[in-house]
Design a protein that fits this description.
It holds the Pfam family DUF2461. By secondary structure, the protein is α+β, with helices and mostly antiparallel strands. The protein has helices at 4-15, 19-24, 26-50, 52-55, 121-133, 135-142, 145-150, 172-178, 191-194, 199-222; strands at 85-89, 100-105, 110-116, 183-189. It has a four-stranded antiparallel sheet. The longest helix is centred in the N-terminal third of the chain and has 25 residues, at 26-50. The termini are far apart.
């Protein structure tokens, strides 16, 4: 579970997003960070039991977290800190672009899911090709009752291609999938879940449901012709 004080820190950071406030609250930040790292360790231990590829990846919990500092180089928003933390478990970390599990921790906007939000053109082409060749297998994963119960929002991605002519498909559902630039699940969860004693168990159930999707996507990415 995550301590309520950690969520409170993120709420306060959102209201007081300045270097001055952050420096004045360094001790509170350190306590928050220690708590999130500990929570990540527990999640990783349980996920490793579920997914052998994660177990073999030797992930370091603190490196599964996004940094608190924002990259301001190309942003109009100059607030220096993120008022959330993203925890990502990817078997190919630190090299991204492959499918993995994630939890987004932000008071009032916590989310959990898995898959791939965006990737390289090369990997995207491989995923689209795999879906084109084996749509029935992909559809079986996303139409499974447990998947639909846990992830009612379905498959999501960064956006869609307006024009798509790489593959010739007869079925409209397949065409709409192939237009996507990412293939990800994400569902909002109540803050109270994260501060409950069942937090790890509940999140792992989300991960377990997302696992077949993640394996399908990574199989496509790793396929060598």
């Amino acid at each position: 579970m995550i301590k309520q004080t950690s969520l409170n820190f993120l709420k306060e950071l959102k209201k007081n997003n300045s270097r001055e406030w952050f420096e004045q609250n360094k001790l509170t930040y350190q306590a928050y960070k220690d708590d999130i790292v500990f929570f990540t360790e527990n999640l990783l231990l349980e996920l490793a039991k579920l997914d052998l590829s994660i177990a073999n990846a030797n992930l370091v919990p603190k490196k599964c977290l996004t940094r608190v500092n924002r990259d301001l180089r190309f942003s109009k928003d100059k607030t220096p800190y993120k008022n959330y933390v993203l925890v990502v478990f990817n078997k190919n970390a630190p090299h991204g672009n492959t499918a993995g599990y994630f939890i987004h921790i932000e008071p009032g906007n916590c989310m959990v899911g898995g898959g791939i939000w965006q990737t390289t053109p090369e990997f995207l082409k491989k995923i689209r090709q795999e879906i084109s060749y084996s749509y029935e297998e992909f559809n079986e994963i996303i139409s499974n009752k447990q998947f639909q119960d846990i992830f009612p929002s379905g498959i999501q991605g960064q956006n869609k291609s307006k024009k798509f002519t790489d593959f010739y498909e007869k079925s409209d559902p397949v065409v709409e999938l192939l237009k996507m630039k990412g293939f990800c699940t994400k569902e909002l969860i109540n803050d109270k879940i994260l501060t409950s004693t069942d937090a790890v168990k509940i999140i792992i159930n989300y991960f377990k449901t997302a696992k077949p999707l993640i394996e399908y996507l990574n199989k496509a990415i790793e396929f060598e012709e």
